[in-house]
Amino acid sequence: MLTKKTIIIWALVLLMASIYVPTASAEAEDEGYNYSYWGEAAPAPDAYRAERVIYGDDLGVGKMAAPQDLYISDTGVYVADTGNNRIIVLNNELTTELVISEFDNAGAKDAFNKPEGVYADGEGHLYVADTGNKRVVELAADGTFIRVIAEPHSTLIRGSFQYAPIKVAVDKAQRLYVISRGAYEGVMEFDSGGEFSGFVGTNRVKFNPLDLFWKRISTKKQREQMEQFIPLEFNNIAIDDDGFMYTTTVEENADRPIKKLNPSGVDILRSEGYFPPKGDIGTVATGSIPGSSIFADVTQDVGGMYSALDSKRGRIFTYDKDGNLLYMFGGLGAEQGKFRSPAAIGMMGEKAIVLDKDTGRLTVFAPTRYGSLIRDAVVSLDNGKSEESSEAWSNVLKLNSNFEVAYIGIGKSLLKQGENKEAMTYFKLGNNRTKYSEAFKRYRKQVVMDHFGMILLSIAGAVALVVGVFKFVRRRAAGSGYYEEIGVLKNPFYTMVHPFNGFWEMKFEKKGRVKIALGILLLLALFTIIKRQYSGFVVNFNNPSALNSINELKYVILPFLLWCVANWSLTTLMDGEGKFKEIVMATGYSLLPFVIIYLPQTLYSNVITGDESSFYHLLDTIAILWFIGLLFVGTMTVHQYSAGKTIVTMLLTLIVIGILLFLGVLFFSMLQQMISFVASIYHELSFRVH
Amino acid sequence: MNVIRLKNWRYVMRELLKNKHALVLMAPYFILFAVFTIIPVGMSLVLSFTQYNLLEMPRWVGWDNYAHLFVADDVFLIALKNTFLFAVITGPISYIACFIFAWLINELPPKIRAVLTLILYAPSIAGNTYLIWQTLFSSDSYGYMNSFLMKWGVIMEPIQWLQDPRYMLPILMMVQLWLSLGTSFLAFIAGLQNVDRTLYEAGAIDGIRNRWQELWFITLPSMRPQLMFGAVIQITSAFAVAEISIYMIGFPSVDYAAHTIVTHLVDYGTIRFQMGYASAIATVLFAIMMGTNMITQKLLRKVGD
């Protein structure tokens, strides 16, 4: 039945639809993101968009069958068409130059057998990892045979080793680097004569000390039964212009799946970003695509950038030389610009080409305005042109104000120009504490320089004031007789420095008040909130957008109540003399050191640099130790225990707190279950009735 | 004004004449003390307001040295930070450790006590015991610490203990703690020996209930002089840490991570010969030590109430 209302609504909807014609229907939705400092994926404009897709048929060579590798250099684009046992060479306009499926080896016909890797050196010589034939073949640029680098034999290689070259790379000195399946010793290095010279860049075995301990104490027979710790094998390799090797490893949940090996095989990849360069972070172990990114290929880029291809989610992550994530693009899917099973990536100038082995197609990506701005900024910074880089970064920020790396970039150039205060602001926006510290240090120096006389005078004045007040109070106190009765209000402070006497007076001389204890607790809650909110940037690791004062209360008041209740319920069983009121008072009074220390600490934290933060943490430690000491003496006095029994009681109290928490959680989850049960019954009934 | 001055002056003279015998008896020590302590300290104070390089005459520059020290000298701020950390952490810990060891040893029969005292005191008389620590924290895989950790699979490759700014200060603190069971430890033992036994009986009658109260109300107040002496020694040694830093870690240390005020002083005084500047550093250090000593003495007066 159509009422008036629905008609009107429909009319409105139609009207809206006619007004709102989606203008960006031709433009794809931006799907990019970048990780903020807090680990949240902040949406970002697309840095790269698919320009065209090329199938084998477009190249006039027929369908590609499971192509495994792609290599791009000045001399052309090389694709290892593994399933068809051939190598396809394209020129830089991406049209076919040459297809090599067989060649003339010393008068005999020879062919590839499932070649999985291809590489070309500066002169255009092809190196093919001929996986099925267990060899690497070198061909001239026109496809004529030059030589075969056969299976290596060396004492360094295990007897059981099955040589299966899958990827190959050549450096400027004509040394050959081969990655073989099952070679967990590292990358195999061959000298220019084709002789095997050793392994480089072994992945370290990871194990924990506990496993090692069991291995130590087990017998030889048992040891043979155990699983072996073997290093992970590399699965891809790329060499940049400076002769450093980028390698990728198939490793779940590793912090360094990408490595940059120097000529002696040491990993020198910088990881200065918020997160290690490992692709997606914070991935969950469940869901449709569980687990961390798995990199299939890595390629070098200009200005120290490098891009890695995640075969699991089909995303390409580009990092700068410091390991900051600049942008990501790609993904899994059927449409243009997505992949089904991406296998290799290469850079042609600033275009990225990705090879999909499932669909046998090449996808060419071109940078958007956003992408080229980022690239300009990184490259000019790499060339030392901080002005231009700063310019580019601010343009990037106009397109994406969530891009924290840009703030850091601008901050760096401001720091170079000596604009310390502005640099501080930018580093704060970019959440870079070390750089912020550096800028703050310089700024502080400037301020102290300018106002040195003032500062000196004010310090002297403050000291004089303190001494004067001290003397005055002394004089007044001295006039009031010999023994001074400690009042109720003064008692907490007296207790802080004379715990034995103070708690004694609290218990037996009616000096304690529950109100005061609760007042201290509330003050502490307040100061904790202030500290978390306003302590200096260098020591404040709280996400300001996630701070919630009500939430903070549970970290102060809940533990306090739990402790009091747990302690009381325990000591009634362990013949402690304390009443609940006394326990509340003793615990409350013990919290006073925190109240005293937190405010000055918060003030102090605003005038320190990062390497002076050790004092800040020292103050924390002092407060905690003081509190524990007071709590110990308080518990001892209130219950009239011996020292040993007090320690045992306190530890048991902690256990009881755990039990209480468990029961609480259990109770609430039961309640939830019951509520949802009742609610579903109600729904069921309401459906039946209608 | 003048009248009062004259009066004062006359009064002083009269007093001097009245006590001339005592003054004469005091003179030898006083003269020596003045020549070897008061005058050098005073000269250093004066020099800290000048620029002096041992070759030319000192040139008066006023507060410039101090301004430069606190504002323009980044390294000094690092040194200040390190020294304070050092003093705040090692000072109290080693003071308390000294006392606890002394207290424990004090209960033992005399023969064993003598042996144990020697053992505990040995590190601080041995002098250059850095060697042991250098082998322990050697940066190659032969260092004990590294080889132990590697053997148990905690680390993969040797840690450069003495070159890594992150580990330097903690290691120095450990070594300092180990070396610090020195003079004050002996003083405490002597102090514990001197506590009047009858006081404990009196205390027991007056309502001392346990060992802690005994310690707080009787033992500590009775050995207050030794506690004072120990505190002064500990504070000065904690603030004047330099030798172990220079020998163990090298001078200057990597990234100035183990740079202390005294190494800074050594740098400017014996290497660059900027005596005026070095005097300013020394004066600041002196002021810090004096201040800490005063605070500590105030705290120690509270012992036993």
Query: Treating each run of at least 4 consecutive H or I residues as one helix, how many helices of chain B?
Result: 15
Give the mean pLDDT of chain A.
Answer: 86
Could you state the order of secondary-structure elements of chain B as H and E? HHEEHHHHHHHHHHHHH
The count of DSSP E runs of length 2 or more, i.e. the number of strands of chain A, is 27
Cross-sheet strand order for the largest sheet of chain A: 3-27-26-25
Overall pLDDT of chain B, averaged?
87
Number of strands of chain B: 2
Low-confidence stretches of chain A: 17-27
Share of helical residues of chain B: over 70%
Report low-confidence residues of chain B grouped into runs of 5 or more: none
First-last Cα distance of chain B: 45 Å
Classification by helices and strands of chain B? mainly alpha
Q: Which range does the strand content of chain B fall in?
A: under 5%
Identify the overall geometry of chain B: flat
Query: Largest sheet of chain B, described in full?
Result: 2 strands, antiparallel
Largest binding interface between chains: A-B, 22 and 21 residues
Q: The biggest beta sheet of chain A, please?
A: 4 strands, antiparallel
Strand content of chain A: 15-25%
**Global geometry of chain A:** elongated
Q: Quote the distance from N terminus to C terminus of chain A.
A: 17 Å
Structural class of chain A: alpha+beta
